[in-house]
Structure prediction request, 361 residues.
Amino acid sequence: MTESPHPLLPTATPVLRLDPRTLQVGGVDGRRGVRVQPAGADIARLLGGLDGRRPERAVRAEAVAEGVPGDLVDELLAGLRSGGLLHDLAAADLLATDPGPAATARAATELPAAASGPGSAGRWRARRQSAVVVEGATRVGAPLAAVLAASGVGRVHVRDRGATTAADTVVGGLSAADEGRPRGLAAADAVRRVNPLTDLRPLPADRAPDLVVLCRPWAATDPLQVSLHRDGVPHLIATVRGETGIVGPLVLPGTTSCLRCADAHRRDDDPAWPRLAAQLAATEPLPSGATVTCLLTAATAAVQVLAHLDGGAEPAVLEATLELRPPGLLPVLRRWPAHPGCPCGAAARTATRQSGHCGRE
Prediction:
């Protein structure tokens, strides 16, 4: 038997009374709303009880027991769904929510976004079971780790062996009180502040992370990216170079172009690039980027990470980067296709797929 969905009307959705017989649900922010008529106290109670905790059949049975016709309950729920106001949770999502009133309150603000869109049932559970490693407790990496933990990612481990400096501090990340402390420990505290129940431990040797986020400026020259590609671990760039925020590319080994592909394209544009890149990677880069740039870069990266983990919409930074340049900081998409000279072989695979696709038409 198909599992009955657990309907959730987010607590922040306005339920407003127009007159004694009419309620309006939503519709005050330019989006569609739903007007319900007749809507007495029984309908108001029904709407207030759509907390995602009960299956739809239980919601319907309780409303019918209070005298609300079953077809009216069905029509109301269908109207809320068609207006994008109602989200369907799966029982697995509820089981994946940490116990306790504080955890429930935190989850209540995140669940509506996780439960939006097609194929969303079970998405929250998937986040809670995911593991992300953030390489670099930078002015992007530390707040990014905190955002991911707050968004429901169950395990977030930040790797950084350096010591915190005054220039590392940023809203939502390392604080002025952390100066002199190991950056990895300071970043763990930033995560705990937003979600104390997040698992911060390193992954065991027999488990690969679902994603590694590389937060240092020139990760393409880092030997780590070679091992990540070899081991088939998805990885994403999220950093600030100078004053520009960079998110992407997201590399899916064996499927998309890699970081060395992008580096090869740079070399094609400028033969001197390898010498320049070696110098850029030779020393520890100084913290850079305005606070607004760093936070917007972290938030943009979090959107891409969650798109990858949720498996709904395709991330925008597959074989591409989003560049955030001040003062406007409007994202500019830049493509990095597979390079024919890169040993990753993505260019050959792409050509094979395109040839096969053309042959079928």
Q: What stands out?
A: The first helix runs from residue 41 to 48. The radius of gyration is 24 Å.
